[in-house]
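Practice problem 4.
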């Protein structure tokens, strides 16, 4: 690689890195982007195979991806190989760290659920009676949310509810609700629970990724260079100034060690990879909180019911089908008395079938049950908020290294009674709503998945006004090193129940514009 000093080095190319490149290059700032994975060509890299042609008949090779429940033999190559890039966790507390190393990162594969956080999250301490507020509010981020929503073409229905802030939506139309969704909505409304519709990014041609919505404009400026298969080992520090001056990385295939120079470093590798890099570099942690306050969202709670009139293929037109979305409705007032803080949303879908595990039957009897209940089911699931706690943290495990000799991350995470009580309340609430709708309960799960399953890890480089209790300031800028910005979800102070992508993008846009202005003024 030619020895060229760029204005800004960006580590990571997903939503946060793509947004940083998009903003900075269009302001005339030269950027070098390093990504640990290859560029993906959908036409070149995909092929069609029958199940019988695969060694494991569609199931994944045992032991290769033990923590990635999303993996199977059809998609296994899109996930980080845990043998090649290991991590550790306590034997009694599982953590599922689901990673992707491709140019574009996990922005290729997200579910496109697109929400704003509200001041119930930004100013959570005022509602919860403890914990910490963000150093910003919804009003600070709202203009950036609007711009991001415009780029990603977010659809949604405006409600005017403070816990579910409306956005800059494209014109959205929703099909008329089925009878079951109308019934659920009526029952929920009787209990003061508002029912809405999912909000999602339409993107372009079915893809709402960094590679099609953010990086093309950045590349078109001529100000962005992307180096794939570049695994960053350590950030470089100028011994005279204490500022960052670039990074050391290893080429994935040749294992050649290289260096790059830059005036500013922007980390956008995802919460845990960015934190791992900073911890391995031994920098920007005068507060001692780096790696702490790891958060994730609660998934796994579900209730399945059956509508009697729809069994045995007897559903009349308009009875089944469609979906409903219920934003947070718990703990919106200080006067509420529950045995947990925070909240959750409900996702309800109508028209599915029953799983074999729902019935104490097998063979012909089970087949008849499944046929009878096919198409008659209504399913409810949740996304819930975990509490940010200092003891939930990551640290470097020097006894384990990856395939390039870089020390691995150890995750120490435990749920508390708050998460367990929230999950039970959510399951009980879904059950009560479904019973009140007149439906038979087939299955109820009030236990959440192990942390990490949501693929929404957050919080290990939290922002704040006090350098003694936070890693970053309100602009995603390191308190310790002014030419270091961290623009992924590690900056989050609370995680909310919402998919974090819109907030990640908005924070990255805001931070990048702040960085560009600081560079224009010559303060960085």
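Answer key:
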């Amino acid at each position: 690689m030619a020895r060229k000093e760029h204005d800004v080095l960006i580590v990571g190319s997903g939503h946060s890195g793509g947004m940083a490149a998009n903003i900075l290059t269009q302001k005339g700032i030269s950027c070098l982007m390093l990504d640990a994975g290859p560029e993906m060509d959908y036409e070149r890299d995909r092929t069609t195979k029958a199940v019988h042609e695969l060694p494991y008949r569609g199931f994944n090779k045992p032991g290769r991806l033990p923590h990635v429940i999303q993996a199977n033999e059809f998609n296994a190559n899109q996930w980080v190989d845990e043998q090649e890039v290991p991590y550790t966790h306590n034997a009694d507390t599982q953590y599922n760290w689901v990673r992707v190393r491709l140019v574009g990162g996990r922005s290729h594969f997200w579910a496109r659920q697109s929400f704003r956080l509200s001041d119930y999250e930004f100013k959570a301490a005022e509602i919860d009676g403890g914990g910490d507020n963000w150093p910003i509010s919804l009003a600070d981020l709202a203009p950036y949310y609007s711009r991001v929503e415009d780029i990603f073409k977010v659809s949604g229905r405006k409600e005017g509810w403070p816990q579910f802030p409306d956005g800059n939506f494209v014109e959205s139309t929703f099909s008329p609700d089925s009878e079951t969704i109308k019934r659920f909505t009526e029952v929920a409304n009787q209990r003061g629970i508002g029912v809405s519709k999912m909000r999602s990014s339409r993107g372009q041609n079915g893809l709402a990724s960094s590679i099609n919505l953010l990086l093309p404009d950045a590349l078109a400026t001529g100000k962005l260079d992307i180096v794939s298969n570049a695994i960053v080992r350590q950030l470089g520090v100028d011994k005279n100034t204490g500022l960052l001056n670039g990074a050391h990385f290893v080429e994935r295939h040749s294992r050649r060690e290289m260096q790059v120079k830059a005036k500013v470093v922007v980390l956008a590798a995802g919460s845990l990879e960015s934190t791992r890099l900073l911890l391995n570099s031994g920098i920007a942690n005068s507060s001692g909180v780096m790696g702490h306050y790891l958060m994730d969202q609660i998934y796994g709670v579900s209730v399945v019911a059956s509508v009697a009139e729809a069994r045995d293929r007897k559903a009349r037109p308009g009875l089944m089908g469609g979906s409903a979305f219920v934003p947070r409705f718990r703990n919106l007032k200080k006067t509420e008395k529950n045995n947990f803080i925070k909240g959750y949303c409900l996702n309800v879908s109508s028209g599915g079938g029953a799983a074999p595990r729902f019935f104490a039957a097998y063979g012909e009897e089970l087949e008849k049950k499944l046929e009878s209940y096919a198409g008659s089911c209504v399913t409810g699931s949740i996304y819930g908020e975990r509490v940010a706690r200092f003891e939930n943290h990551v640290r470097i495990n020097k006894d384990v290294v990856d395939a390039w000799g870089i020390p691995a991350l150890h995750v120490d995470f435990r749920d508390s009674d708050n998460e367990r009580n929230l999950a039970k309340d959510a399951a009980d609430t879904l059950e009560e709503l479904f019973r009140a709708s007149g439906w038979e309960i087939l299955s109820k799960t009030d236990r959440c998945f192990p942390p990490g399953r949501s693929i929404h890890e957050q919080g290990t480089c939290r922002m704040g006004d006090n350098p003694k209790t936070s890693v970053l300031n309100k602009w995603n800028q390191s308190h310790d090193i002014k030419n270091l910005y961290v623009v992924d979800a590690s900056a989050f102070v609370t995680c909310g129940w919402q998919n974090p992508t819109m907030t990640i993008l908005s924070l990255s846009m805001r931070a990048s514009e702040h960085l560009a202005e600081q560079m224009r003024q010559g303060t960085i």
